[in-house]
Protein 1
Amino acid sequence: MQEIRKNEVSIVLSGAAGQGIQTVEHILTRVAKDSGFYVFATKEYMSRVRGGNNSTEIRISEKPVYAYVDRIDILVPLNDNSLDRLRKRITKDTIILGNPKYVSNEENSLSVKFEEIAESFGNKIYENSVAIGVLSGIIGADEEALVKHISEYFKKKSEEVIKANINAALKGYEIGKELDLRIEIKSDERVKNQILMNGSEAVAKGAIAGGCNFISSYPMSPATTVFTELSRLSSQYGILVDQAEDEIAAANMAIAAWYAGARAMVSTSGGGFALMTEAISLSGMIETPIVVHLGQRPGPATGLPTRTEQGDLNLVLYAGHGDFPRIIYAPGNLCEAYQLSAKAFNLADKYQVPVFVLTDEYFLDSFYNVQDMPEVKVERYIVKTDENYRRYEITEDGISPRGIPGYGKGLVRVDSDEHDEYGHITESEEVRVKMVDKRLRKLDKILDDFVEPKLFGDPNYEYLTVCWGSTQQIVKEAVEKLGNEKVAVLHFSQVYPIAPHVKEYFKKAKKVIFVEQNATGQFANLLKLELGIDTSNKILKYSGYVFSVEELVEKIGKQLI
């Protein structure tokens, strides 16, 4: 009997687009969760509808897991080039499990005739259900959970198809139990009541918690998943959804919706957002809020449409012409994505500025167990206007009272030209300076709501590893595996504006190491500009593939020498 691990297993499935890898991922992760196991899953896929070669990684553990690893304990190849593509991740400890035609020439392999078993139930299309059953049997998953999730996934099919998939999965489950392979993972009853959620769902549900009731977007991967999730929930939560003819229209509609009193969002990616920059300047000038979710992917131009990168910080930081304030969030985990997406709506309303939520493909497509999300209160800052209402009243903190048409007796004037307090166009030198200064005064006030960076590790650190956005959990696990108490992690989920007092974290460190998924260290460069700190030590990756835990253990370790 082969024994892999007693507390965790990393399963990778690989095959062509259209072979149903995502079906296996969707069902197996839910079966594992309902069996009391902690789950983390993420995927990588080529930019094509069919063919190519894609893979999904599923970590199943008796402890919480949140990050991607290179390690493969069980590999299930579903086509003939899966093994070659993943060869660098296969070790002597990897067990290769699959159809004999794919695994027979491999060391440490176990043959399971998925296709033949599937055909015995009427169609080789049931091969995925067989695979789900085999893997469920290997990890000792709950049989009732297996039947439940197979049934739920295929519920729109005929009774005959549902029954065939269930029987195929149960046959696989029986085989998995009898294989010469053992994985012992303790189940935790508390996990069964947790939520399995991915980044797209966390952002979408956070937006709903923040009062989002309008979304206009033009599809672009990977951000479309947030758009489609809000569309799916639109009837339940009263959200008006518009798939615009282009990104320019989408952004302008969102601004118009805020002007009318709605709470609007656009979800886009770098290339789409590039078309929205004039609208962002419009938001800055007329001080009408907008919330933008931007799912980053490698650029420039079309770049790598289905890969991941943290390359758009500079894009949103400097988007638009002229000087005006903005807020940029980059959540590091699903709870932060929920909370910061909700907060984005409240602060866009409060400060009347564009607010950005930066994610990326890796973050949006990864999911794991989470507790119930905390309740978020919707904060509204619209005022009832009177006859003397001045939309752009000069105030000490730069925040003018925001009215909306039809609420009160005042006239709500907005204009993209420079304007006076009432919203009338002006070319007065004096008024121009006053208005620019008024808008920029908001930056100091915005810092009252600054989201503090999170420090993980011993506060008496000597080495400080700095990261932002989606790399949080990967860096955190890597530093934990290093086992060096002198190393701590500082993660930023608000990347602009930065409160000056965070400089104290850097003063304490003997060495600061920046970890980013881009070619130039965009966040490090921003901190150098804002705080004047040393940013010479950088670990950067911009291949389109996410950092692995093992990779960062090695690279951070070398920085400690």
Note: The radius of gyration is 26 Å.
Protein 2
Amino acid sequence: MKTATRPEELTDLGNCLQEDLQSYLHESTPVQIRCRRSDKRLAIWVQHPAEATLDQDEILAFLEQTIRSQYPLVAQQARVNLLRAGEKKPYISRSLFLNLPEPETTTPFEADSVETNETEETNPPSETETPQNSDSDETQAESSHPWDQPIPEVNDEADESESEQPPSVKLRLKSSWLPLVVAGAGLSLVVFFSTLYALTRPCVMGKCTVLPEAEQLSQKSAETLQNPESGKAVLEAQEQLQEAIQLVAAIPPWSSYRRQAQQKLQVYQSQSETVADMVEALKTAARAGYESQNPPHPESKWREVQNLWRDAIAKLEQLPTDSNLQPLAKAKIKAYKTNLEEINQRLLKERKAQEHLNAAQEAARMAEVRQGIAQSLSDWQLVYATWQASMRRLKQIPQGTTPYEEAQELLALYLPNLAKARDRKTQEQISANAYNQGVQLAQLATNSQSDKQWSVALVHWRNALTYVNQVPQETYYYAKAQSLVEPYRGALKQAQNQLQLAVKMQQARRDLNQTCSGTPSICSYTLDNKMIKVRLTPAYVQMVQQRAMTARAQGDSEAHAGLVNHILTLGEALEVISDNAQLRVEVYTPEGVMIQSHNPAQ
């Protein structure tokens, strides 16, 4: 058992209570504890930061339970004072009556004096903060910190009698011998019960059974720790060591076994510290396992679990190499590292999932901006590609991560935008293709016209007009295509007229070739878009003249009539050619004298 009677032991007691309370609070609020002793009463001062708020009942209950279980021999009574840093007065004080199974050593008079001493020591008469008078405030302000002040020694009997007896009784008591009798009786009782208490402490009289019992518990604890099956076995071994420590610590300084007990105590405490480190590592691992349940968790939570596993591993690795806990520690380290690796993977997966989500949302915002100003095919291609990038990022977010559900919602939200961008991109592609094809065909038609290939030009113009009319409305090229419709129609009509004219002239050329042919050649001609000029050949004119002269000389009227008919037929043929070609025809002699002309019928 742990004990604290001398000042240095009271200091150790304060440090131990501070460590226990700090561990209980999980280091969320730093506390400091100091202990003082007055008679059979223990004064405990607990200081915490001024801004912190502690559960007073919880702290008091914890200290009472701790003192009962681990420090049962320090005092029969204790008074706990809660103090804020920077203040010199406790804001709450409470007496703890430990009711330990020890011989009663106080008398009714001492019980009264204890109550009086408590009042003078801590000032507040209840668990709540009470106002102080101005004199006490000034005195308290000038004094040192309550931890540095000694526990006041007061004459309990005198104070009690003076505070509770009426003035007349006080005078009679002072003037009689009754106080001396009472004091003597009380002193005798104190001496008697103190002596009885001292003689009934462990290992004071007779054979010391505490040390063998403590050693047996220590050995049992060591055997348990040789090959513990679980963390529960380690806890049982720790309890056995604590029980051994309590037994040894209960041996008082006046026992002849005190030195041996202190040596055992140091050994047991050293073993207990190692076991406590192991238990702390197991608790940390248990907390890590608890915190990692019910995934998915955000990155911050996984990082917290990661740190817990690392702490548990570090605590196990710091155990002494010669400790009998090494086999269990190595097995736990291996298992914990496996868990840590899994947590690392989950943390990495969670981080990547969050990065994918952020990138997808950023791409979606960019796509919306681009979609609002998109016009040309290249614009809509970029919008569609951006929506695709956003959707691809969302699909890369795996199940078992916190962004997964949000990613599924965003996929359903972004899908209509992706479809709209795809349809508009397709329309713009059709529009661009039709417009560009129409422009290219128009250029081919122009080139064909330059080469007088009117039939080819006519086909190109017709196809070009068809393509520009196929450009969809509400597309980037629609307005441009519409501006080309009328020019292309005019070019088409012109090509048609030119083709018709070319056909007529070609027909006229064939007819003229046929009309002018003969032996000798009847005529030659020139043909353009405005006129047909026919020139009779000298040979043909000479032949006609000779035949006319011969017929006249012979008086052959039939031959003369046939010659005239031939000349008339030539003129009619030329007029028909003029009418068909819609061109004026002029007939000239070989000398260039016009002998006939004809305008086509309108």
Note: The chain has a mean pLDDT of 79.
Protein 3
Amino acid sequence: MFIVLLCLKITAGAMPAGKRDSVITMPFGENNMIVYSLTTGTYDVVFSGKKTIAGAFAVCSGKTEMTSAGAALRTHSFSTRTIHDRVSRYIIETVRNGLRMQQVFDVYGSRNYFLTTMRVIGRGAAASYMSPLTTDSVVVDEKGDNRALSVPFDNDMWARFNAQPIQHANFTSSEVTAIYNNDTYKGLIIGSVDQQVWKSGITVKANGVNSFSISAFGGFADSTITHDKIRHGLVTTTDTSCVSPMMMVGMFTDWRKGMEQYARDNHSRAQGIFNWKKATPVGWNSWGAIQNKITLDKAKRVIDFFADSCKGYRSANGQLYIDLDSFWDNMVKGGLDGDVSELKQFVAYCKSKGFKPGIYWAPFTDWGKHDRKMEGSAYTYAQAWLKQNGKPVEVDGALALDATHPGTKARINYYLTHLKNLGFEMIKIDFLGHGALECDRFYDPAITTGMQAYKVGMQCVTKALDNKMLVYAAISPTMATAPYVHMRRIACDAFSAIDNTEYTLNSTGYGWWQSLLYNFVDADHVVFNHESEGANRARLASALVTGTLIAGDDFSSYGPWSNAAKHLLQNKELLKVIKDGRSFRPIEANTGNKGVELFIKADYDKVYLAAFNYSNTPRTYTLSPARLGVLSRAQVTAAELLSGTVENWQQDSIHINVPPSDAKIYLIRPARTK
């Protein structure tokens, strides 16, 4: 490895009057650079020859307040080294009040983004807030519809993404944001690439029509967004060192590709414990309709429905998961150490039909909310309750457990070992955000933040499961869950109504990139119930554009949902849509906090296009082939998969008519010539 070291020490107060600032230039990508002033301790970022970020600086607060900027006497040093032939690392060090602040910039020769972090070294370095990028001057002057995207911390309590006009922006996005132009797709992406220590936030506040301030920081704690009623915990890497989260900062010609690159970078850095090699999972879950009325008899009749009446509903390798959600303990007497014969019967019956049995559990919650012995341990629940301001924390009706407590760990091992030994091959784990809450004081004194505790808890879950099940996360932190599960719900608690589909596709439309962070994301229960044919088509289509398919009706009894399932779930062309397990991209990402209406996915020689109408009146969408980004100006043939009809689209424009509360999915191929 070739390494170049260059050190330059400058005392700002000793510089001759009138002398130019000492400037460090860090080029990256195509005509981009970071320009750092050693005199002011601030930096600008130039993308494609245009200054976009000006006067940015680093700041931290905790036991000690410190910033890279300001006129106070300080000493700067600068070093650079080549990490490998495509990445160079620049380190700017500021010394102030006995502490050293290092700003680190990793720049890529071939990529239009860089990574930045900061470290504070010295006694009293512990911090609860660290920002390697804070500025009051970011300018995005693209003409047209400029948007700023707010991303929720998790998928709980019907949280929504919000792509608001940039001139109205005033929010803190969790982990990542995109500032983009919906007309040209050009966009700035800023987000954390490590969630093992910090909860990160990106604060965006408009200063004018095209100007705004940004702070990308670790230390995000909010009573609504992260469900924390106390500030973020102090972070210390060692007794005398504290490191911020690393932030990705880049400008992309297509912000959608930028978000996908962001997801890939997170995925590669997390070195996920799981990597699903089998076909895209499909299945059924009991919470969609049966809910707390689940019994062995009903579960068997559901299995019979899929075995006898819905034989075409299978994954590409012929598998189907039958998942018992909450209240599976209706089949148990005396706990998992008691009579579990009905669970054994369910597992055996499921496997006898060639299906995969699934189960449900929440590792970090106490639903009983009273003190008693914890299963599998010598501790009581009260000893393991997580506390904020001296009080147990209740979220979603359940008390949170300290994920670092030995009682919590023993309970996790107890439940998961029993469920694994019973023969379950899939598990839906839920309410995971309870394990990521900040705490007055964790049982493990080495753990000081919710994200550190979450890592401990999820590693305990992973060890207990021993790679024996398909692991499926429901309510959970968006970014930090990825290393520990195969599959995650894009949005939770969606059922049959058209507004549930709209809610789901707000998350898919602006969070589709998560299908590159996880092996799969899905659209929650696909429930048909008594809805119209159009609403059922839309609900199914919402799952197909998200990437997987989990049915949810009560198939233990006969109703209109039964025929809907037979018709829709066995359509081979529709099932091919999810073969790659990838979500569709948004075409128009300008719907604010509402569901995206138009989606696209290119797959080698074919293109899928989906259109949704959430309203009670007909809609016509008009698109140019160029807007799709993948079609030539020649005529194309579009097969509408939900109806089986075929349309020929001309070169000038495409008109898609969608009835009220309905959807269409097209398979597009170039028209054949004679």
Note: Residues 1-20 have pLDDT under 50 and may be disordered.
